[in-house]
Automatic annotation (TrEMBL):
Gene3D superfamilies, A to Z: Ribonuclease Inhibitor
Organism taxonomic ancestry: Eukaryota, Metazoa, Ecdysozoa, Arthropoda, Hexapoda
Species this chain originates from: Cinara cedri
UniProt keyword list: Leucine-rich repeat, Repeat
Keyword Repeat belongs to the record: yes
The protein's name: Leucine-rich repeat,Leucine-rich repeat domain, L domain-like,Leucine-rich repeat, typical subtype
Length: 238
């Protein structure tokens, strides 16, 4: 941000629009002056800065629906984010997160992205958010998907570029899951459950770049069942 005057102008404009965009503003610290917008703000974009932390006061933006803090240097998220019950889009890509606090109160969260962090564990609470449709956990260090995934209402799950060795059969129980991306992991062919190919709702399964030859997968009888489902979906699109 060029100067205090410029930030003040942004704040005044945001009172009227409900949108505050401070992306790529060279911020090293969270600007406390924006806290006066707690009653008004619906969209907050702090991406592409140099922030190392978010204050607890961020939990007071009760009207927020969209928050983007991607491309910073955040090592953790404040538990107070759980107070933002109206959030439907949360973007925390390209940070230094090793864990995510349980944000069980984000009941209306539809889209969440934690791409390119340092997560080792798939956060269980994400499986139980009933409105969560799109989840991106790609480019982390996650080693397994919890059995709780069967409770999720996800439509799309991206786990590309992690360290997953086996997919749980419970993925086939996901009632709405259509797209599953697990490219460039550590999957062996026997790490793909037959149920995922035969009885799941998944119509787009991306598994390239794992520890098996794709020809071996294509040769499976179960894969033919999956391809029939994939082809049927394609026909409905055109």
């Amino acid at each position: 941000m060029g100067n205090a005057s410029s930030l003040k102008n942004h704040v005044e404009t945001s009172r009227k629009t409900g949108v505050l965009n401070l992306s790529d503003s060279n911020l090293k610290h969270y600007p406390d002056t924006i806290d006066v917008l707690h009653p008004f703000l619906r969209t907050l974009d702090l991406s592409k800065n140099k922030l190392k932390m978010l204050p607890k006061s961020v939990g007071q933006f009760k009207e927020l629906k969209i928050i983007n803090v991607s491309n910073n240097a955040l090592e953790n998220l404040p538990e107070e984010l759980n107070c933002l019950s109206k959030i439907d889009t949360l973007q925390v890509n390209c940070n230094l997160l090793k864990s995510i606090p349980p944000l069980n109160n984000l009941l209306f969260l539809k889209r969440a992205s934690f791409e390119d962090n340092q997560l080792n564990v798939f956060p269980n609470f994400l499986c139980e958010l009933k409105h969560l449709e799109e989840l991106n956990l790609s480019k982390n260090n996650i080693t397994q998907i919890p059995e709780l995934i069967k409770h999720s209402r996800l439509v799309e799950l991206n786990l590309n570029q992690n360290q997953i060795r086996k997919l749980p059969a419970e993925l086939a129980e996901c009632s709405r899951l259509k797209t599953l991306r697990v490219e460039e992991n550590c999957l062996e062919l026997n790490g793909i459950p037959k149920e995922l190919l035969t009885v799941s709702k998944v119509s787009l399964l991306c598994v390239e770049g794992n520890l098996f030859d794709m020809k071996s997968l294509l040769a499976l009888e179960e894969y033919n069942i999956y391809m029939t489902r994939f082809t049927d979906v394609k026909k409905k699109m055109f």
